[in-house]
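CO-FOLDING WORKSHEET

Operator: S.A.
Ligand of interest: adenosine-5'-triphosphate
Run index: 255
Mode: holo prediction, single chain
Checklist:
[x] sequence pasted
[x] SMILES validated
[ ] output reviewed
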Amino acid sequence: MLKVVNLAHAYGDQQVLAGIDLSVGDGELVSVVGPSGCGKSTLLRSIAGLIKPSHGQVLINGVPVEQTPDDLAVVFQDYSRSLFPWLSAAGNVALPLRRKGMSRRARREAALAALDQVGLAGSADKYPFEMSGGMQQRVAIARALAYRPALLLMDEPFASVDAQTREDLEDLVLAVRANHNMSILLITHDIDESVYVGDRVVVLTRSPATVTESLTVDLPSPRDQIATRELEAFVRLRSEIGRLVRGRPDLVGEQ
Ligand SMILES: Nc1ncnc2c1ncn2[C@@H]1O[C@H](COP(=O)(O)OP(=O)(O)OP(=O)(O)O)[C@@H](O)[C@H]1O
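OUTPUT RECEIVED:
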């Protein structure tokens, strides 16, 4: 579905990405972790066609991405800039559904259902300025999920919500992915999260970033917030990724 080939990017003379190769298969959820500031958001914006990388290629189903593809949704890290302030929560979620040719009523129904899934059933008619940061981010997540894109890109989507909501949203993304066969690339700072939701975890080096490792998450599905995190395989993988992110691959395997 998604293939990133030798992607490099520099802002002026600051080299940020130094040749990234990665792929996301049909229906696969790939988590991307890496040190702070290593270029994760730059990678996501390049994949979404929002910036033109200095070098390399992004292919979706074999077709090079020149501009943001129709069958793509993005949840940005910065919730404060991702919603239209003049539209209600339901209006924000319903807006992209116009591109799907849905009737006004069907759009409204889909928006209400998605808001209900993210725990905002009672806030459909609120405007962004009437909602907390975490609520706004949940609206952005509802908008992406309601659109049912073939490929969903998420940049730290759960960073601004409380721990309980975060777990609920992780499970919601897994459920929607399973029901609609979406391919998902999720960028996160949270190593536990990368393992819990991922089929694979791609670890980036410090900037200028390259891929250090791509690890398969061999854990049973459906995942469970308590039981999965208790599994020995989960704990082992989390430690291995932690060491890789901290740049000590020499320690991998030691307990
Ligand atoms: N539009 C831009 N113009 C110039 N420099 C930029 C721009 N966007 C990002 N950078 C720089 O590129 C580097 C990587 O930034 P980026 O946001 O891609 O990293 P990140 O891994 O997502 O960061 P974080 O872990 O803090 O979310 C940083 O040094 C940042 O200052």
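REVIEW:
Residues 11, 16, 36-42, 207 surround adenosine-5'-triphosphate (CB under 6 Å).
The chain has two domains: 1-66+150-157+182-255, 72-148.
[x] output reviewed
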